[in-house]
């Protein structure tokens, strides 16, 4: 029988996939997303623009994976190797799901001259947001690790939500993504991680000594 976490994960995946397909098909000028990015380009204050630029440059590079490695080491030392491997798998499937979605949707980026982009764009795949997905993948791995340790996941969940929102807003502020891109970038990995995490829990519980 499917568990609630697996059902919720499957529902999120379906919602994210359909939303991404709809927004890509309609186009940002018809959904209002382009107007929102243009609004950001005229109203972004320096105190928000500079941190957003920092996230754009360093928030998805090699240094951004150091917290993930630190989390895996902590889980390995405190909970055990199986839990660490499961946490790593949860993170990887969440991250990879968005890479696959980018290749499928091929949604064009916001026009840099129109939204006055603050950072150079190296690729033209806008849907979903990779930066937001990385934040969501780390948040999901953190929540799963806390869950495996048997502790309350609410603080980790709240921290993860804040991290994802900060990353998502930053991507619109610099003119690199639309609202739909960051929304799907959060929902898709969250759904995949819930689904895979539930299946891993089921597998690990069967192998646990009685």
* Total number of helices: 10
Structural class: mainly alpha
Number of domains: 1
- Which oligomerization state do the chains in this entry correspond to? single chain
Task: Report the span from N to C terminus.
Answer: 22 Å
Tell me, what's the shape?
Answer: globular
Helix content: over 70%
Order of helices and strands: HHHHHHHHHH
The major β-sheet equals: none
Radius of gyration: 18 Å
Enumerate the spans where pLDDT stays under 50 for 5 or more consecutive residues: none
Q: Using DSSP, what is the number of strands?
A: 0
Beta content: under 5%
The overall pLDDT average reads 87
Protein described:
By secondary structure, the protein is mainly α. It has one domain (4-204). The chain is 77% helix and 0% strand. The chain has ten helices and no strands. The protein has helices spanning 4-26, 28-31, 33-43, 46-58, 66-78, 81-105, 112-115, 130-148, 154-173, 179-207. Helix 8 packs antiparallel against helix 9 (154-173) and helix 8 (130-148) runs parallel beside helix 10. The longest helix is centred in the C-terminal third of the chain and has 29 residues, at 179-207. The model has no long low-confidence stretch (mean pLDDT 87).
């Amino acid at each position: 029988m499917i568990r609630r976490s697996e059902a919720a994960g499957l529902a999120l995946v379906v919602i994210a996939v359909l939303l991404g397909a709809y927004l890509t098909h309609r186009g940002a000028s018809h959904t209002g997303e382009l107007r929102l990015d243009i609004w950001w380009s005229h109203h972004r204050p320096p105190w928000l623009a500079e941190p957003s630029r920092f996230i754009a440059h360093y928030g998805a590079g090699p240094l951004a994976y150091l917290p993930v490695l630190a989390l895996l080491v902590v889980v390995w030392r405190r909970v055990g190797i199986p839990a660490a491997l499961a946490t790593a798998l949860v993170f990887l499937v969440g991250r990879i799901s968005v890479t696959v979605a980018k290749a499928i949707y091929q949604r064009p980026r916001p026009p840099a001259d129109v939204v006055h982009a603050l950072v150079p764009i190296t690729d033209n795949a806008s849907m979903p947001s990779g930066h937001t997905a990385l934040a969501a993948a780390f948040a999901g791995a953190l929540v799963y690790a806390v869950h495996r340790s048997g502790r309350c996941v609410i603080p980790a969940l709240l921290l993860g939500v804040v991290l994802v929102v900060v990353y998502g807003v930053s991507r619109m502020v610099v003119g690199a993504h639309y609202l739909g891109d960051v929304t799907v970038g959060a929902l898709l990995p969250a759904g995949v991680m819930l689904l895979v995490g539930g299946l891993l829990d089921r597998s690990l519980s069967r192998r646990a000594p009685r």
